[in-house]
Amino acid sequence: MKKTLSMSSAAVVDSMLSDSTAAEKNPDREEAINLKGILSSMTLDDKISQMIIPAIRTWDGKNVTELAALPDLKEALHKHQYGGIIFFGSNIEGSGQITALVQDLQVNNLENRGVSAHIPYFIAADVEGGIVVRLNDGTRMTGNMAIGATGEEALLNAQKTGRILGEEMAAAGFNLDFAPDIDVNNNAGNPVIGVRSFSDDPETVASLGKALAGGLSESGVIATYKHFPGHGDTAVDSHIGTPSVEKNYDQIKKVELVPFAAAIEDGAEMIMTAHITYPLIDEEVVFGDGKTKGFYPATMSKKIITDILRRDLGYDGVVVTDSLEMDAIRTAGLVPGEEDSIEYGINVAQKVIDAGIDILLIPCDMNCAEAVTFYDKYIDALITLVEDGSISQERIDESVARILKLKEKYGILDTKQYFISQEETIRQAQEIIGSDAHRESEFEIAKQAITLLKNEGETLPFTKGDKKIVFLGNQAGDAYTIHYALDQLKDQGIIDENTQVVNLALREQSGSEDGEVKITIDYYYDLKAKESKLHYTEELQEAIREADVVVGFTKNYDLSGLDEASEEYQGIAGAIADTHAVKGRFVLFSNNLPYDAVRFQDADAILLAYMGAGLDMDPTQRTEESRSMGPYNANVVAAIHMMFGDGTPTGTLPVQLPEIRTLDSGGVAYSDKILYDRGFGLISFGVQASIKSEEG
User: Fold this and answer.
1) What is the three-class DSSP state of 689?
2) CATH entry 3.65.10.10 includes domain 450-651
């Protein structure tokens, strides 16, 4: 039953901690945990620290991967009873290593003699699947937009994805995932959400978000719905700027808030905020310089967090900020104080807490002694603000009660689990993380997601008449995944083992010169080049001139790569022209955002895979510790299999694809005309595409 904000703060806290959730979530729990007793035993320092989750990416310039090697960090973590730790790629070398680090951190926390209460950590990471992963020998999964492309199977695939990601996280000791992303990607130019979104349809996002979160919860991992109230209709990345959504309340209720309302109705336990302004909804404020007027990001807005999220939507679960290190907060001059100063951080924190938020995520990266001092002063200053009444004690107690209740529900407060044999914990983690069963599920979902938009002249699948094929990667690293897929196809007998593969990108060659088929691998865009990045050598041009079919990879993240002045655009456009000049056929293979498909309508076939990450990994390589191939790109491998006839595309568009028009002033922009409708996709290689042309 949802709590109402009309109750007194003390009554809300009392009601929260009176609810018994242990038996519901953990029926084998030997004894109840007295949450009221824990709360009453906590000092104000303990309570405020419980509302903070720092990152420990590095310490004095070295990646934090082993706690025993960093006694100063161990001692630093003893100074306060932090609510948790968030992990990033710099912390993770393999499943055994991260499992040991997580357990050592929990034990170090529980052995801390400097705090009144000993409360185990939230162990958190951003494990969305797709382009956002952390476990470097785990299963990547396909990403949300690919799930959205699987049509009637999408609900099951979302739940399965959450379960697999959750099982692997839980095996390593993680109990909190900052996923799923339930932003509605209704802005094709969005530079930060994109394929992290399930769809541009709010009802689809709502249902798939709930399913993925359910899979996480089944695996014992807390799901976090993000980014409230919606990051989908933005054209600025909040990591580097402050996005603004020019919509009124009625408008966002019809789109952006739909998935969040559904999640709350379904019992959402944690929600992450967005550092986005809503000028047509929020109240204008004066910024830190005392002169500039503007609007706080949702993270700092009482109107959005307390009035809309808590009161209107009836949510009383835990609310966590997106990282407070992001430039939309850190460098925006929103409150008094110099950038990165204690004064600025404290003034932000006061606004965040007053807005109704429970957890402050990464006020500062705890990476050296100076950062530890920052946290000491930060927490002391917040204590002072509570003691002088600037922040109410009740407001703090509400947040801590929510945190404790959620930790208790998921068994995090049961301390015995952190002292079991580390050797056994690592063994179990290595069996689960990146397991063959998980890989098989990942590949099956990837195959279901592959979407065919166009197939003139039955360009796909390749036929026996296609003797010379060129795979033209976007970047040099793409060659690893292409070569891996071709080796798989040889091993499975789908292409002849004598097929000659000339990998110009990696300067490798396999197969026989006497083989009937020759496949050339290269790339057209050199990220490392100091001047022109267009990599279009004479050797490559010769291969294209001789080819029956050329497959060109595009890796679209925004419109910048689709402008005629862009060398990425020139690479693909030139390859299409050169292929057609010698009567060859061209396959446009869009392996990230699908919106670039409309830019190259002169391609003979268009295939979509919805993920551009992980192509530069060699899946055959293993570290000494890793028993798994790591988070490679199964989407691209599945698509290459289909190009050779191993399977038939069944995916359908989860988003609408608008026309791209050239501006008089130069550059390109999306128009209101929709070329491909949501739900479009060819389910047979032999059916020709019919391009939609409806006004959207």
Assistant:
1) coil
2) no
If you search the block for the tokens 């689709």, which residue do you land on?
Answer: 562
* pLDDT band of 235, cuts 50, 70, 90: low
Q: Is the pLDDT of residue 693 over 70?
A: no
pTM: 0.93
The Cα angle at residue 590 between residues 637 and 507, in degrees rounded to 5: 55
CB 221 within 8 A of CB 176: yes
CA distance 301 to 305: 6
What does the alpha-carbon distance between residue 606 and residue 603 come to, in Å, rounded to a whole number? Answer: 7
Q: What are phi and psi of 663, to 5 degrees?
A: -85, 150
User: How far, in Å, CA of 213 to CA of 163, rounded?
Assistant: 9
Indicate the residue type of 688. Q
Query: How many CA atoms, within 13 angstroms, populate the side-chain half-sphere of residue 666?
Result: 4
What is d(CA 168, CA 127) in angstroms, rounded to the nearest whole number?
10
| Cα three-residue angle 631-494-647, rounded to 5 degrees | 70
Say what the alpha-carbon torsion angle 327, 328, 333, 338 is, to the nearest 10 degrees: -30
Q: Which helix (H) or strand (E) holds 670?
A: strand 668-676
Q: Of the given ranges (232-246, 379-393, 564-578, 673-687), which has the lowest mean pLDDT?
A: 232-246
Record the tokens describing residue 130, joined without a space.
Answer: 């797709």
Tell which CATH architecture fits domain 9-432.
Answer: Alpha-Beta Barrel (3.20)
Cis peptide before 229 (omega within 30 of 0): yes
Per-residue CA distances from 241 to 37, 327, 684 (Å): 43, 6, 44
Contact call for residues 324 and 361 (beta carbons, < 8 A): yes
* Confidence at 322, pLDDT banded by 50, 70, 90: very high
Q: How many CB atoms lie within 10 A of CB 145?
A: 30
Q: Quick one: angle between helices 9-18 and 393-409, nearest 10?
A: 10
Determine the angle formed by the axes of helices 257-265 and 202-218, rounding to 10 degrees: 40
A 10 A CB-CB count for 161 gives 30
Q: Is the dihedral of CA 667, 673, 676, 679 positive or negative?
A: positive
- Asked if 67 contacts 101 with a C-beta cutoff of 8 angstroms, the reply is yes
Token digits of residue 158:
């979302």
As annotated, the active-site residues are 322
Structural domain boundaries in the chain: 9-432, 450-651
Tell me the helices (H) and strands (E) count for the chain, helix number first: 22, 24
pLDDT given at position 625 = 59
Residues 537 and 459: beta-carbon distance below 8 Å: no
Q: What is the pLDDT of residues 264-283, one digit of tens each?
A: 999 999 999 999 999 999 99
Backbone angles phi, psi at 442, to 5 degrees: -60, -45
Q: Tell whether the torsion through CA atoms of 327, 329, 330 and 335 is positive or negative.
A: positive
Distances (CA, A) of 396 to 162, 407, 547: 32, 17, 67
Q: CA-to-CA distance for 576 and 584, rounded, in angstroms?
A: 9
Look at residue 691 and give its three-state secondary structure. coil
Whether the Cβ atoms of residue 386 and residue 393 lie closer than 8 Å to each other: yes
Q: How far apart are the first and last CA of the chain?
A: 41
CB 333 within 8 A of CB 303: no
